[in-house]
Every structure is written in C-alpha cells, then in structure tokens.
Design a protein that fits this description.
There is one protein chain. The protein has about 230 residues and is an alpha/beta fold. It has one domain: Ribonuclease Z/Hydroxyacylglutathione hydrolase-like (Metallo-beta-lactamase, Chain A, 4-Layer Sandwich), CATH 3.60.15.10. The chain has seven helices and twelve strands. A seven-stranded mixed beta sheet has the order 1-2-3-4-5-6-7, sandwiched between helices. The longest helix is centred in the C-terminal third of the chain and has 13 residues. The radius of gyration is 16 Å and the shape is globular.
Length: about 230
C-alpha cells in the first residue's frame, strides 16, 4: 500500500528483478494544490492500491522519469485511462505502444509549475533522466542518478550496491558514470539541483534520505564532477 512521506506526497515500493538481482523499485505519488495527482515511476500495483490512489484525487499525469523506468506505464494507464503520459526524451521510440507519450523537456509543464520544478540532466543520453523538486515538502525526487542502498539486502543486491558505489551512502552510481557521454553537460545539469532548498531525497531504489539530504547530494555531485 501507499505510505505517506509528507503532506501531499506518498510512495510505494515493489520487488523486481534486474539481471538476476532482486531489488525494489519505488513509485512516488504527489497531490498538487489543485487536487490532481501526479504519479512518478509507476510500479506494479493491485486494485487496493489503485483505489487508494483514486481516493487522493484525479490522476492527471503518469511520468516515466528516465529511459529505464517505464515498465509499468501501460498498466498504470489502464488503471487511470484519463491520465496523460510523459516520458524521457527518446522513450517514445522504445515504447511505440504508448501512443500518447509526451517527451519531457527542460521546462516544467505549466500545469505543474506551482508544485514542481525540474531539471532534465543532459550528457547521459542512455538515461535522459529528469529530476524533480516538490516545493511544498522540500523534496528532491530522483530515480537512478542518485542512489543509496541501505539496510539488509539479498547478498546479490548488496554486492551490486558495493560494486556500483552506492552501498550505505548516497552517490552517483558507477553505472551512470560509465554511461555519461558529456561530463561537463551532466555536471552543469546536476549542479543546478543544488539551488533547490530540499531537505529530503527520494530515490527509486531503497533509501529515502531524511538527514543532511542537501549535504549528501552536494558530496555526491562533487565526487561525480572530479
């Protein structure tokens, strides 16, 4: 079921497997000031969660924030057929079945601007991730660009987290570093996140950072920039 993080923002984790590694993926749900609902990186959910989301308000938007987190977009659209789909640039070529997929850009959608700010991170075309700032809760919403895998994990997941440099602390994983094609462009995009006064970081895998969140992102981005 959805769990509330702060006023008007919820999350849900679901188990998945990637390359034989068991891990969790997180969906984030935001209710805007006008009562409409925005779903970020949907995961698989059943009728109980669908009803829970529907009680929050009208689901108006479903977002695939990068080129990897799109697996359950179609199922989520079936659950909320009136919602508009948005996705990472280039995802429309990969998910031709999502006929009404609108590409995300550098500018936040006007209907979202009162509640969210965003940065499309340039220089990593394999990922093309957009990172968000939810103003009311002072929350940074990331997907794969910032990761922190904490607590008890399956040994395969723990080994993968150590290998990619995100076991127990927030960082830009080595997989993203290797996918970077223009380090200067990526660094400029990521550094622009630091202007936001966030006090929390939601990631798509494992951790939500509540303590010294801004400092943790600063340190991660400093290591990435080197």
């Amino acid at each position: 079921m959805l769990k509330q993080i702060a006023p008007d923002i919820w999350h849900m984790e679901a188990g998945i497997q990637t390359a034989g590694i068991p891990l969790t993926a997180r969906m984030t749900v935001v209710r805007f000031k006008d009562g409409r609902v925005w779903i970020h990186s949907p995961v698989r959910f059943g009728p109980e969660v669908r009803a829970q989301i529907a009680r929050l308000g009208e689901v108006a938007w479903i977002v695939a924030p990068n080129r990897a987190h799109h697996m359950f977009m179609g199922k989520c659209k079936q659950a909320f057929p009136d919602a508009r789909l948005y996705g990472a640039p280039g995802l429309e070529r990969k998910r031709w079945d999502l006929a009404d997929l609108h590409p995300l850009g550098d500018a936040v959608e006007p209907a979202w601007a009162a509640d969210l700010d965003q940065v499309l991170v340039r220089g990593i075309p394999l990922v093309n991730e957009t990172v968000w700032f939810h103003k009311a809760s002072a929350t940074l919403i990331a997907t794969d660009l910032l990761q922190c895998w904490c607590g008890q994990l399956d040994w395969r997941a723990a080994a993968y987290a150590r290998l990619t440099g995100v076991r127990g602390h927030l960082d830009v994983p080595h997989t993203v570093r290797l996918a970077t094609r223009d380090r200067a462009a990526a660094t400029a995009s990521l550094q622009s996140l630091l202007r936001w006064p966030f006090t929390r970081v939601i990631t798509a895998h494992n951790a939500i950072i509540e303590q010294d969140a801004h400092g943790a992102v600063e340190r991660a981005l400093a290591r990435f920039s080197r």
